[in-house]
Write a structure and sequence with these properties.
Layout lengths: L4 E2 L5 H10 L4 H13 L13 H10 E2 L4 E7 L5 E6 L5 E7 L6 E3 L3 E3 L14 E4 L2 H16 L10 E4 L9 H12 L11 E5 L3 H8 L6 E5 L5 H7 L2 H4 L2 H12 L9 E6 L7 H13 L5 E6 L13 H13 L4 E3 L33
Parallel strand pairs: 1-2, 6-9, 9-10, 10-11, 11-12, 12-13, 13-14
Antiparallel strand pairs: 3-4, 4-5, 5-6, 7-8
Bound molecules: S-adenosyl-L-homocysteine.
The site of S-adenosyl-L-homocysteine has 16 residues, from β10 and β12.
Length: 365
């Protein structure tokens, strides 16, 4: 067990208090926070403005970083997947998705996942453990440094999505703390408005999120338009069935800001949930609950041993037309990083089939 304090998981006031406990003036706490969160340094040794003996004594009681990058895989579409290990040797995966207008980082909230969605590879790992706030923040720092360089200012508008491994709402407090740390203007300055968190439907936490003024955007993984089918695909539905889930969404909708929509994600499984009837049921369900959400259709990312195939483009198109014809905005999500097990539902600490970047596997620290 590691007893040293992981400083990436402290808010700025906590870091100042921590420094004061060590007998340091408050400005040192601010300096350390800026070095870790603004310049994204991952070692006390690199904080050159701190006296050498202070760096050494910090090393005795604290850690700047706890994750190690085991492998980095680069897709033919430019997506990068990082397979990291925690200090207790558990996998953490993070995906960097370059896009024309802005880049997106998809982070994990847990190592493995306790939910048993039948179409998701992460489920096969089971829950290993929830990540700490520091581990959530550090994943993002590692991905940012690899993409843009250590200490380099972030391009405007890097987005975060909590859609990696795990169920973010079963690690709510650590997640919210990580988001508060990252929002700090003296640090990463990634504000909640640029963050989307996805849940399989942990109803009480949806209601909690609705009460937080400075909250991230919300996405809900739906995958089925009826309880019967959803119970089968996403067993969490037995605990919080559709009527409760969509009721919570209605509550949440009252807190939407101007121009804000929340999103339903609908993974499309060939011959399972992609018929014209399912499309009508889905549109009717959302309309019946008076929800003005948008729907993201995600063609299934197939992987051994998942028992599904992706719906054909034609079927996805037909499904989309029906849902749209009933007044619901629908987008088809283009799969990213499928070839390196980086796409939705593919994070299961796989070694990956292709390592086609020139550096191959590499160690970041
Ligand atoms: N546990 C949270 C966060 C994970 S988000 C949640 O369920 O929302 C991951 C998204 O990928 C979810 O919307 C999920 O429905 C989708 N997904 C899971 N497995 C998939 C697969 N094999 N192909 C495509 N999408 C998948």
């Amino acid at each position: 067990m590691n007893q040293r304090v992981h400083l990436s998981g402290l808010t700025q006031p906590e870091l100042i208090a921590f420094s004061e406990e060590l007998g340091l003036p408050a400005y040192r706490g601010r300096q350390i926070f800026a070095a870790l969160q603004h310049r994204r340094l991952l070692s006390f040794d690199d904080i050159s403005e701190l006296p050498k003996d202070l760096r050494a004594s910090l090393d005795n009681v604290a850690q700047a970083a706890t994750l190690s990058v085991e492998s980095r895989y680069v897709s033919t579409d430019g997506t990068r997947r990082y397979l990291m290990k925690t200090h207790d040797n558990l996998p953490v995966e993070t995906v960097f998705i370059p896009e024309e207008r802005r880049d997106t980082i998809c982070f994990s909230s847990q190592s493995g996942c306790p939910l048993q969605c039948t179409f998701c590879l992460t489920a096969q790992l089971g829950l290993l453990r929830s990540l700490t706030a520091g581990e959530i923040v550090e994943q993002i720092i590692i991905a940012l440094n690899d993409a843009y360089g250590v200490g380099v200012r972030l391009p405007r508008g890097t987005n975060l999505v909590g859609m990696g491994a795990g169920e973010p709402f079963l690690n709510f407090d650590a997640l919210m703390k990580a988001l508060r740390i990252m929002a700090n203007p003296d640090g990463l300055f990634i504000v909640p408005n640029r963050v989307t968190v996805s849940t399989a439907g942990i109803v009480p936490r949806i209601l909690d999120l609705a009460k937080i003024p400075d909250r991230p955007h919300l996405a809900i993984s739906l995958a089925a338009p009826t309880d019967e089918l959803r119970n089968e695909l996403m067993p969490i539905n037995k605990k919080w069935p559709l009527v409760e889930l969509l009721g919570a969404c209605r509550e949440f909708e009252k807190t939407l800001r101007a121009g804000e929509r929340f999103t339903f994600e609908y993974v499309m499984l060939d011959g399972v949930n992609d018929s014209e009837e399912h499309a009508r049921q889905l549109a009717n369900l959302l309309n019946r609950h008076g929800l003005k959400a948008k729907v993201n259709l995600i063609p299934h990312n197939a992987a051994d041993p998942l028992p599904y195939q992706a719906s054909s483009e034609e079927k996805v198109g037909r499904f989309q037309n029906i849902v749209e014809s009933k007044g619901i905005h629908t987008f088809v999500r283009r799969p990213r990083g499928r070839d390196i097990f980086a796409a939705c539902g593919q994070l299961a600490a796989r070694a990956g089939t292709t390592i086609n970047n020139s550096e191959g596997q590499y160690q970041m620290r």
